[in-house]
Amino acid sequence: MKTAVFSTKSYDRHYFNKFNTSSEHELTFFEAPLNVDTVNLTVGYEAVCVFVNDNLNNEVIVELVKNGVKVIALRCAGFNNVDLESAKVNGVTVVRVPSYSPQAVAEHAVALILTLNRKTHKAYNRIRESNFSLERLTGFDIYGKTVGVIGTGHIGMLFAKIMLGFGCNVIAYDINKSNELVLAGVEYTDLDDLFGRSDIISLHCPLLPQTFHLINEDSINKMKDGVMLINTSRGALIDTSNAITALKSGKLGYLGIDVYEQEEKLFFKDLSEKIIQDDDISRLMTFPNVLITAHQGFFTREALEEISKTTLSNLSDLEKGDKCQNEVKI
Ligand code: NAI
């Protein structure tokens, strides 16, 4: 299928070319994101392949259809950046990669916890400057702590199992309970109880109207003083300015984020010689107890392979007129 691939990085090109073996699909790689300013690039393409920060609102989808595009192939699991109603009305098929490496994201959430707690990032820099002091590197035992998991789907379930392995008391909230986790020893509870009892809270639910700013002033006030909050899901689950207020007061003891509400203008770009215009991220970057990674939870070899293979297979299914099991329907 003739496909315009947006927001392309070197690793996308590498893995897509590697698995598009018989050149079954005609892929054109654009570094630009897909949005209202770049949609004109899609004239003559049958499909677009997009990532988390491409913006497929109604205006873009209407233009895509005018340009001949019939398929939106997301090379990610989340689809909060696509107006599904508009896609349906305009007859555009949306496919995604529902699960490429849930282990990768669950393991990254644990990496954020361990780094924030044991301050290995600071130790690394100290040692490079021959500073072998342990002052201010004190952490806490993760063993025996209560970990609250919000969303126990593919990623949240694996994360919960890892934390059980650490000897934690794992409690969870999800609109659908997992019997497997209950049998493994996870206790499901309501959100307020989870907020009140957890030493560490990790977010693994999707961004939906119901979960937008799930973490806000009200919910933070229900948490333990000094709680650790981890978000590898979607930035807008957290009200950033409320989180900054709670960090300043000490209510939030640690914040580890792989996703950020306004990440679209920042993440996946080298802005080291630019003036950052986003004051919230600039403020977050000043806290000693905040760790930010730029949406790299998924970023393992295994995940990149799975993303490109599944996306190419989704395009093949649609080209052949077969039913695609990864279609996103509303
Ligand atoms: P999933 O669909 O397997 O699981 C999501 C879970 O959230 C389900 O169990 C669902 O019942 C639950 N849920 C839905 N609405 C809820 C609500 N209102 N309150 C509580 N729970 C609710 O999704 P998966 O694969 O586990 O991914 C989770 C999120 O991780 C995705 O939505 C995506 O935003 C994010 N993600 C982040 C990546 C990264 O690189 N940082 C990579 C891949 C996904």
Automatic annotation (TrEMBL):
Pfam families: 2-Hacid_dh, 2-Hacid_dh_C
Keyword Protein transport part of the UniProt annotation: no
SUPFAM superfamilies: Formate/glycerate dehydrogenase catalytic domain-like (SSF52283), NAD(P)-binding Rossmann-fold domains (SSF51735)
Keyword vocabulary terms for this entry: NAD, Oxidoreductase
Occurrences of domain D-isomer specific 2-hydroxyacid dehydrogenase NAD-binding (ranges): 110-297
GO molecular function, one term: oxidoreductase activity, acting on the CH-OH group of donors, NAD or NADP as acceptor
The keyword NAD appears for this protein: yes
Transmembrane segments: none
Residue stretches making up the D-isomer specific 2-hydroxyacid dehydrogenase catalytic domain: 5-329
Family: Belongs to the D-isomer specific 2-hydroxyacid dehydrogenase family.
Species assigned in the record: Marinigracilibium pacificum
InterPro entries, sorted: D-isomer_2_OHA_DH_cat_dom, D-isomer_DH_CS, D-isomer_DH_CS1, D-isomer_DH_NAD-bd, D-LDH-like, NAD(P)-bd_dom_sf
Record-given protein name: 2-hydroxyacid dehydrogenase
